[in-house]
Every structure is written in structure tokens, then in C-alpha cells.
Write a structure and sequence with these properties.
The protein is mostly helical and 96 residues long. It is 51% helix and 0% strand.
């Protein structure tokens, strides 16, 4: 008695050849058959570029009510406050 090996089972299958099909050309979305973009597509692209520029300006700290001069003044004030605090700590260390 021999056990059946499932890997060596005989399979009965039919081979079907695929018939060649012509590729279907689908126009890009938001474009006409002639390749002209739709109004909605153009508007969306413009809005996307505008919001990207607003975001990068905001990340750079140049947007809104503050300009470069006011940001420079804030940085200078913070640096001065840090130096003053450091001098105060050093004076307190000497007194001990």
C-alpha cells in the first residue's frame, strides 16, 4: 500500500490561448479627446499651486501680519532676555 502524494496528483486542465486584443486608448482624465484640459482641471491646478505657495510662505514665517523685520526684532528681544537671565544666574552663583 502506498500513500498518495498530493504534490504528484495528476491534474486535468485545458490550455486556452488568449487572443490578442487591441489596447484601448483612454484619454487622460480631465482632458478632451483632442488633449485640451477641462476648465475644472485648470482651476484645480491653479488652486493647488496657490495653496502650496501659501503653505510654504506660512512655514517660512513670512505670512500673515508679521513681516521679516518684526520677526528679527522678536529674535533679538529673545536673545537679549536670554543673555540677561544668564547674567542674573551667574551673579547669583558668585554670591553663594
Amino acid at each position: 500500500m502506498t500513500e498518495k502524494d498530493p504534490d504528484k496528483e495528476i491534474l486535468d486542465a485545458e490550455i486556452v490561448e488568449e487572443s490578442p486584443t487591441a489596447p484601448v486608448e483612454v484619454p487622460e482624465p480631465d482632458y478632451s479627446e483632442g488633449g485640451v484640459p477641462s476648465f475644472d482641471h485648470v482651476r484645480d491646478r491653479i488652486e493647488q499651486r496657490y495653496t502650496t505657495s501659501l503653505g510654504s510662505t506660512e512655514l517660512a514665517g513670512l505670512g500673515g501680519k508679521e513681516d521679516v523685520a518684526s520677526l528679527d526684532k522678536k529674535i533679538a528681544d529673545r536673545d537679549k532676555a536670554a543673555k540677561d537671565k544668564l547674567a542674573e544666574i551667574r551673579r547669583a552663583m558668585r554670591e553663594q
